[in-house]
Amino acid sequence: MKITDVVSHVLQYDLPHELGYSQQFYTRRTAHLVEVQTDEGPVGWGECFGPGNVALANKAIVEKVIRPMVVGRDPVDREVIWHDVYNALRDHGQKGMPIQALSGVDIALWDLTGKIAGLPLCKLVGGQVRERIPVYGYGMMLRREDPASLASRFKNEATAIKDAGFVAAKMKVGLGARDDVRLVQAVRDGVGDVFRFMVDANHCYTVADALYVGRALDSMGAYWFEEPVAPEDLDGYRELRAKLDTSIAGGEAEFTRWGWRRLFDGRCLDIAQPEVCALGGVSEYLKVVAAAHTHFVPVVNHVWGSAVAVAANLHLLAALPPLPGGLHPTEPMLEFDTTHNLFRDELLEEPLDIAGQVARTDGYAGVPAGPGLGIVPDRGFIARYRIE
Ligand code: CA
């Protein structure tokens, strides 16, 4: 079997209302799907992390830079292709968009390899450790409203996520340290005293502000504090980890085994959040997980994007070995965006229906059956939302 074409589909629609996190507000949702076609019929699907115009730039890298290196090759040669592409692009970007673009192609090659082998991705990467994956709901995004009314919105939303059956809830912060502590208190009030909740700063703090917020999180029993400071600030991560009780999580903005090595060597994280659609695809994700386990850092994947990304992550989380082992190990969780997302809910011929699964099982989702990612994107849906 030979690869005959690599096509990027960039999809976009206007959200019903603006959403925000600590870095920006946005009104459109974008998804970047990668389709690898073969001479014998099967196609593989992947996804590249990167919203808005970043998706358009990544599409150019996929189609103009990577495609010519990949057409004519055997799709099961995933590692060979990965290293050829990485070596060719190394001088032009060891992080960021070239690696995001490579990620989507690599995921599609794994999907194809599963279809060729007749095995689901979770079996292909080592086997199914767990039948079902606990799911946490993230929501509680920023809005352009005053802090008091946002806090009351967050409180209601936190209660709703808990009542929907999710095993935990994650909120955004980013108004400034003092107002953020009030938002966190509202979420704690909304979910009650024992329910697990996490706080995502999207690297908006200085170390001093992160310590101020982090001490409040310690007293309120937050489960983790995500991306408190800039991803480049490894010393800041290390200092927060030493001074706070709350687990420090991060890594969604890090790429490849070589980038991740510095986070692990620096003892920067309590919880690693690799993003498979950004860091280099499934091939590289497996190496980052191995590095995490080498340093005894548990992994809870970062998940963003369409049903393609969600399906890939369900397989990878199903196959993730417990760390450390035991009768009652701490299980990884699927990150699930509870805000409006047609690309997650309606892209597939048979939707994953994560929210429905969570409601029926009190917080869990199963792995899509079938070879590869186990999904079939609806071509009519893609044609309807494709902008380029
Ligand atoms: Ca995050």
Q: In what range is the share of β-strand residues?
A: 15-25%
CATH topology (level 3) name of the largest domain? TIM Barrel
Please name the CATH architecture of the largest domain. Answer: Alpha-Beta Barrel
Structural class: alpha/beta
The count of helical stretches stands at 15
Structure summary, number of beta strands: 11
Brief summary:
This protein is α/β, with parallel strands linked by helices and 388 residues long. Helices cover 44% and strands 19% of the residues. It contains 15 helices and 11 strands.
Describe this structure in words.
The chain is α/β, with parallel strands linked by helices and 388 residues long. The protein has two domains: 3-118, Enolase-like, domain 1 (2-Layer Sandwich); 123-366, TIM Barrel (Alpha-Beta Barrel), CATH 3.20.20.120. It has 15 helices and eleven strands. It has helices at residues 52-70, 78-89, 97-117, 121-124, 147-163, 177-191, 207-220, 234-243, 256-265, 276-279, 281-294, 307-318, 342-345, 354-361, 379-385; strands spanning 3-21, 24-38, 43-48, 132-138, 168-172, 196-200, 224-226, 247-250, 271-272, 334-337, 364-366. The strands form two sheets. Strands 4, 5, 6, 7, 8, 9, 10 and 11 form an eight-stranded mixed sheet that branches. It has a three-stranded antiparallel sheet with strand order 1-2-3. Helix 6 links the parallel strand 5 (168-172) and strand 6. The longest helix is centred in the N-terminal third of the chain and has 21 residues, at 97-117. It starts with a strand and ends with a helix. The structure holds calcium ion. Calcium ion (CA) binds next to loops.
